[in-house]
TrEMBL record:
One of its GO terms (biological process) is interstrand cross-link repair. GO terms for cellular component: Fanconi anaemia nuclear complex. This is Fanconi anemia group C protein homolog. PANTHER family: FANCONI ANEMIA GROUP C PROTEIN (PTHR16798:SF0), FANCONI ANEMIA GROUP C PROTEIN FANCC (PTHR16798). Belongs to the multisubunit FA complex composed of FANCA, FANCB, FANCC, FANCE, FANCF, FANCG, FANCL/PHF9 and FANCM. This complex may also include HSP70. Keywords: Cytoplasm, DNA damage, DNA repair, Nucleus. The gene is FANCC. InterPro entries: FANCC (IPR000686). It comes from Pan troglodytes (Chimpanzee). Pfam families: Fanconi_C. Its main location: nucleus.
Length: 559
């Protein structure tokens, strides 16, 4: 508490000096400095109010003798008054200074002064007597006239900016770059006012012919912050222009999404999907330049976490939302070629992965999976089909559409035929992209053997958890985090969900498998992803779905 008091006193002195500088000069530099510090000053006012409301007015004056000067300077600064909630917080602070029962003339004078300042704040848009008489003569009351005047001014400026954008190189009819820059600076404290939205949109969409960006960085930052905090709502075209023109804003939007995902419940894809759609990033990513930046940040997250399953699942959900937005947009205008989104991979591979399984008859799923495997294998091992980025780029593309990999496991377990080599290779590559040919071949042999045992056990009249543990190799000294072990665990979980006898021993098997919290989270993620995918593809298996939900609920109560 004492530290908070010291910090507030230091902040008080800092802002008192700032306000004095802003009050003494009204230059371009002081305006820029004011706009740059508006958010920080508002936060200081909040802290000041929290302190003031705990004191009586006499204590306030004793502790902060110059509080009146500070608040007065703030109240006569139009940038501060116009910014977000600063006006409201200033009123709260002033009310804390009022003596409810003044004991002397000094306190009465202070009350009168506060009332005058409050009157100024509540009528911040003031005109002289002649203007007031003029508006009354037109039949307007000030309460009707002032908002209408602001609205008309904004619409007029927005219209001028749109003409400026359309005029291109016609310099005689174009707005001067200095004026555009000035407008963007003036807008900074007004961003959250609904009436100013048309001007903000027009500024974002208006592109000059200057070699350098003319809009102020503070403008971009303020607009982006307001969008992220849902304080304003702009058309998607304006949001796309913002993120194209100011890369730090796009990066901050991605980091804001990551923060929300990290703070949310792990392994809940429905919530992740809501966060992703709410971020506007999938819709904006229909522009290839934005998609490439977003995808690169996902790539960095994937590499930093060494291929964490949560990141892979998030990439897959984002891709699904992006594809939906792309299909919606393509109905209205020509879309970009797929190569512009995934430049390092084969266009034919991208096209087949982009297909929605819902649009393919189930009887053709196996054929499609074999085709995907063939294209990937050629790109990875033979370096054909235009793949320039090596195995990682092919795998990175594949995980965007990882639902296909999960379908492989189900296809293998539901078929009594010999497991096709193409599907075994696809699974081995999905789980072990860094493996070389020889190691991948060993994984394929191991998986084929496990599949044979599982299919034989599915025909058995009795199943035991211990038998399944033996088949899966859970009792060996093998690293449980190894890709092959992860693959086998997921095969086993699929078997439990689909095999008729698997339901009765499912919990016992999972208890044996979940040696560590890491594996428990992996199993939770698998079950959640399976349910999410079944729902999306319309796969109906009430018994399996019920089991998956029960297991998921039980596991979540234990972590």
């Amino acid at each position: 508490m004492a530290q908070d008091s010291v910090d507030l006193s230091c902040d008080y002195q800092f802002w008192m000096q700032k306000l004095s500088v802003w009050d003494q000069a009204s230059t371009l530099e002081t305006q820029q400095d004011t706009c740059l510090h508006l958010a920080q000053f508002q936060e200081f006012l909040r802290k000041m109010y929290e302190a003031l409301k705990e004191m009586d007015s006499n204590t306030v004056i004793e502790r902060f003798p110059t509080i009146g000067q500070l608040l007065a300077k703030a109240c006569w600064n139009p940038f501060i008054l116009a910014y977000d909630e600063s006006q409201k917080i200033l009123i709260w602070c002033l009310c804390c200074l009022i003596n409810k029962e003044p004991q002397n003339s000094g306190q009465s004078k202070l009350n009168s002064w506060i009332q005058g300042v409050l009157s100024h704040i509540l009528s911040a848009l003031r005109f002289d007597k002649e203007v007031a008489l003029f508006t009354q003569g037109l039949g307007y009351a000030p309460i009707d006239y002032y908002p209408g005047l602001l609205k008309n001014m904004v619409l007029s400026l927005a219209s001028e900016l749109r003409e400026n954008h359309l005029n291109g190189f016609n310099t005689q009819r174009r707005m001067a770059p200095e004026r555009v820059a000035s407008l963007s600076r003036v807008c900074v404290p007004l961003i959250t006012l609904t009436d100013v939205d048309p001007l903000v949109e027009a500024l974002l969409i208006c592109h000059g012919r200057e070699p350098q960006e003319i809009l102020q960085p503070e403008f971009f930052e303020a607009v982006n912050e307001a969008i992220l905090l849902k304080k304003i709502s702009l058309p998607m075209s304006a949001v796309v222009c913002l993120w194209l023109r100011h890369l730090p804003s796009l990066e901050k939007a991605m980091l804001h999404l990551f923060e929300k995902l990290i703070s949310s419940e792990r392994n809940c894809l429905r919530r992740i999907e809501c966060f992703i759609k709410d971020s506007l990033l999938p819709q904006a990513a229909c522009h290839p330049a934005i998609f490439r930046v977003v995808d690169e940040m996902f790539r960095c997250a994937l590499l930093e976490t060494d291929g964490a399953l949560e990141i892979i699942a998030t990439i897959q959900v984002f891709t699904q939302c992006f594809v939906e937005a792309l299909e919606k947009e393509s109905k209205q205008q020509l879309r970009f070629a797929l190569k512009t989104y995934f430049p390092y991979t084969s266009p034919s591979l991208g096209m087949v992965l982009l297909q929605d399984p819902q649009d393919i008859p189930r009887g053709h799923w196996l054929q499609t999976l074999k085709h995907i495997s063939e294209l990937l294998r050629e790109a990875v091992e033979d370096q054909t089909h235009g793949s320039r980025g090596g195995p990682f780029e092919s795998w990175f593309l594949f995980i965007h559409f990882g639902g296909w990999a999960e379908m492989v496991a189900e296809q293998l377990l539901m078929s009594a035929a010999e497991p096709p080599t193409a599907l075994l290779w696809l699974l081995a590559f999905y789980y072990g992209p860094r493996d070389g040919r020889q190691q991948r071949a060993q994984t394929m042999v191991q998986v084929k053997a496990v599949l044979g045992h599982l299919l034989a056990m599915s025909r058995s009249s009795s199943l035991s958890a211990q038998d399944l543990q033996t088949v899966a190799g859970q009792g060996t000294d093998t690293d449980l985090r190894a890709p092959a072990q992860q693959l086998i665990r997921h095969l086993l979980l699929n078997f439990l969900l689909w095999a008729p006898g698997g339901h009765t021993i499912a919990w016992d098997v999972i208890t044996l498998m979940a040696h560590t919290a890491e594996i428990t989270h992996e199993i939770i993620g698998f079950l959640d992803q399976t349910l999410y995918r079944w729902n999306r593809l319309g796969i109906e298996s009430p018994r399996s779905e019920k089991l998956a939900r029960e297991l998921l609920k039980e596991l979540r109560t234990q972590v």
